[in-house]
């Protein structure tokens, strides 16, 4: 995970040398059928930040991003993007943003170079600058070797990289990425991540929506969690994880629900942990979140053994964003939406005797 200070030189089309890339206040979007997709969102994204918008399917991520990108007009609240109001200055907003939609907009009949050239024309990149800009972008997304191949021959990851390149063709200071890695294998996803980090390091502000906790953790300076159209938490990945508090002790108890419930009761009411320890039943045992879980883990095992409860293993780990999500929302993200290889922040696996 990266910890760095957002830059303030990430583009300044308004010419005032300051201000946020996005300033949103009380944003609401109710669809014509009455669906309240966004219910009063407040959000500020400083220039140069890599910002993550994290939430499960249907939470309102795409709707929000579309209001910022002027593709939907908010039914309430106000939004300023790069210093321009999305209602009064929609054209200016569009000139200063890149937008990578969930579905790629790559034309499969055209080569990579032709796709970027087409976008360059559409975005009004001056003719004299086009060729150099296209080569630069092909290099940036590692498609220079296949520049003259048709996109229909590309893998999903290559198409996504090409799509990202077309979103950047007019050098926008702010780029929206709507679930850019959904459906990609881990290798393709990692390459896209490198590319996003590279453009962010050049000063571009990035607004990323994702259902992948690991993705947000890895890339973002700051994250807001959205649920049912409302922001329920905002902070750096580290701050959000700290909010869970302490460490997590997972104890494996093979003997069914009754044994697990008894173990949970002991962990809650015994003298092992402070009163603010949080104890939850899991599929195969119990999970204790506490300030000094590591120190007191063995005490709990002894207490459980004395109570006749069999423990087959335990593991102490730092909280992940999954734990954050669970703590904030009381529900886990759809497991299918999560990546196959979550960041390894676990401590050593310790097996009880
Ligand atoms: N055109 C529409 N008309 C009515 N309701 C809509 C429309 N588009 C989206 N919705 C609803 O608005 C809510 C938010 O959808 P949205 O697509 O913004 O969520 P999301 O977080 O981006 O989810 P996903 O990851 O599935 O894209 C959902 O309940 C969705 O069914």
UniProtKB/TrEMBL annotation:
Alphabetical keyword list: ATP-binding, Nucleotide-binding, Transport
KW Transport (keyword) present: yes
SUPFAM superfamilies attached to this UniProt entry: P-loop containing nucleoside triphosphate hydrolases
Annotated region described as Disordered, given as residue ranges: 1-21, 334-353
Domain ABC transporter: 22-253
GO biological process, one term: doxorubicin transport
Keyword Nucleotide-binding belongs to the record: yes
An example molecular function term from Gene Ontology annotations: ATP binding
Highest taxon in the source lineage: Archaea
NCBIfam families in UniProt: drrA
Family according to the record: Belongs to the ABC transporter superfamily. Drug exporter-1 (DrugE1) (TC 3.A.1.105) family.
Name of the protein in question: ATP-binding cassette domain-containing protein
Organism, scientific name: Halosimplex litoreum
């Amino acid at each position: 995970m990266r910890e760095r200070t957002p830059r303030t030189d990430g583009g300044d089309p308004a010419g005032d040398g300051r201000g946020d890339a996005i300033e949103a206040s009380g944003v609401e979007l109710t669809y014509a059928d009455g669906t309240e997709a966004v219910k009063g969102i407040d959000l500020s994204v400083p220039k140069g930040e890599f910002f993550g918008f994290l939430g499960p399917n249907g939470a309102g991520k795409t709707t929000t991003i579309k209001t910022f990108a002027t593709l939907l007009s908010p039914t309430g609240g106000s939004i300023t993007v790069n210093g321009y109001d999305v209602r009064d200055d929609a054209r200016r907003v569009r000139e200063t943003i890149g937008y990578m939609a969930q579905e790629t907009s790559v034309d499969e009949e055209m080569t990579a170079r032709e796709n970027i050239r087409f976008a360059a024309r559409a975005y009004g990149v001056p003719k004299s600058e086009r060729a150099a800009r296209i080569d630069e972008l092909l290099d940036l997304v590692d498609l220079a070797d296949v520049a003259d191949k048709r996109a229909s021959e590309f893998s999903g990851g290559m198409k996504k990289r090409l799509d990202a390149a077309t979103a950047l063709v007019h050098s926008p200071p702010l780029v929206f990425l709507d679930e850019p890695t959904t459906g990609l294998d881990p290798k393709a996803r990692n390459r896209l991540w490198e590319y996003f980090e590279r453009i962010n390091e050049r000063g571009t502000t990035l607004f990323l929506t994702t259902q992948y906790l690991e993705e947000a953790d890895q890339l973002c300076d700051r994250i807001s969690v959205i649920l049912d159209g409302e922001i329920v938490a905002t902070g750096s990945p580290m701050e959000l994880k700290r909010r869970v508090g302490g460490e997590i002790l997972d104890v494996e108890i093979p003997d069914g629900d009754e044994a697990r419930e008894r173990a949970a009761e002991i962990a809650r009411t015994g003298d092992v942990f402070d009163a603010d320890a949080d104890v939850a039943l899991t599929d195969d045992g119990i999970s204790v979140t506490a300030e000094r879980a590591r120190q007191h883990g063995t005490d709990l095992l002894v207490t459980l053994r004395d109570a006749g409860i069999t423990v087959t293993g335990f593991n102490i780990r730092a909280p992940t964003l999954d734990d954050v999500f669970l703590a904030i929302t009381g529900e886990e993200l759809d497991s299918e939406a999560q990546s196959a290889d979550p960041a390894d922040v676990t401590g050593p696996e310790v097996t009880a005797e």
